[in-house]
Amino acid sequence: MSLPSRCRVLIVDDSAVVRQLLGEILAGDAEIEVVGTASDPYVAREKIKLLKPDVLTLDVEMPRMDGLMFLHNLMRLHPIPVVMISSLTQRGADTTLQALALGAVDFVSKPTLDVQRGLRGFAEEIITKVKMAARARVRVPERPLLPAPGSTGTQSAPDTTVLTAARARFRTTDRLIAIGASAGGTEALRVVLEGMPADAPAVVITQHLPASFSAAFAERLDRHSAMAVREASDGEAILPGHAYIPKGGQHLRVIGDGARWRCRIDDGPAVNRHKPAVDVLFHSVAQTVGANAIGAILTGMGDDGARGLLAMRQAGARTLIQDEATAVVWGMPGAAHKLGAAEEIVPLERIAERLLTLARANA
Questions:
Q1: Which of 87, 106, 222, 226 is the one with CA 20 to 30 A from 116?
Q2: How open is the CA angle 247-251-253, to the nearest 5 degrees?
Q3: Structure-model confidence comparison of residues 331 and 121, the more confident one
Q4: DSSP state of 201
Q5: Where does the record place the Response regulatory domain (predicted)?
Q6: pTM for this one?
């Protein structure tokens, strides 16, 4: 679907080279107009007022005010879609996840070496994500962000949702929940896992992330959930009370081992241009788990997971998708809806409750 008019973009980055490269990449698309650039958040603030962009691209490490503080202020006072330009490092992963928690729509990773060639290699992804952001629904966080690991800041009090979930005992050993997500999914998954009790059915997850981000993402989800959230290891048993995500850049499958299920880490080719891919996970769940599974697709761009969710439903699994009103991007859920893959459409805040109800109904 083309945009009704050209998407107006403001590029915010302290590097003149990056500003020029991003400008050339984005201006090369007929549906995008680069209305300006800014070298730091103070210049950006004035240009936002003057130029009224539809989307910002935003670097994190900048002089005078870092990108996270600027993003926090922007979302509080003048929320507009933001695509973060982040580095492929552990620190970059932690910071990018914080930015997504603050309301950024998505991110693009930039290399630490040979930036010019690296950014041009990501040109198609950059253009696609900026145009997607122009259509996205900006979600302003309802509560403060927890500090990153190693931060000296004071942490917020434990979230009452997590504590309530931990006390709401749930006993089952033969159900499996499979969840797929992409753009907007890091925060949507946090909301869902916050609502799961410590002994919930096992959860397997595919979220589109680059390789260097998955460890930080698992740690972040683990801090927010009564469940134990971890990167999956090849061959490990899938246990109740645990949630598993693949290492970035590798697929996660579920395989059978007698009466048990195990994780299989698959280094095969990308599927639907993604690795990990939701369809890979869902098709394995349909084949291995069948009617004992519950599947859900959350916010995300594209159609990854739609065919896999349909396969799960055809195998007897219960299936649902996040509703359009609460999704940052309704691409993946919408594609599943068009295929008839989902039995139910559920608001984000009710998905955890509904997953547990469906698991109990079949127990």
A1: 106
A2: 110
A3: 331
A4: P
A5: 8-125
A6: 0.88
Do 124 and 22 sit in the same domain of this protein?
Answer: yes
Q: Is 337 a catalytic residue?
A: no
Q: Would residue 54 show up in a list of annotated catalytic residues for this protein?
A: no
So what's the pLDDT on residue 90?
A: 62
My answer on whether 203 and 352 are in the same domain is yes
Diameter over CA atoms, the chain: 65
pLDDT tens string 272-288: 999 999 999 999 999 99
Residue 129 C-alpha from the chain's centroid = 13
Total domains, the chain: 2
172 and 213 housed in the same domain: yes
Residues 6+ apart with CB under 8 A from 263: 204, 232, 233, 234, 235, 236, 238, 244, 252, 253, 254, 255
Residue of 54, 279, 304, 323 with catalytic role: 304
Active site residue 304: yes
State the CATH number of the domain containing residue 317: 3.40.50.180
Please give the backbone phi and psi of residue 201, each rounded to the nearest 5 degrees, phi first: -55, 155
Containing structural domain, residue 122: 7-135
3-state SS assignment for residue 104:
coil
**What pLDDT is attached to residue 63?**
75
Contact 262, 238 (CB under 8 A): yes
Cα 177 to Cα 200: distance, rounded to the nearest angstrom: 9
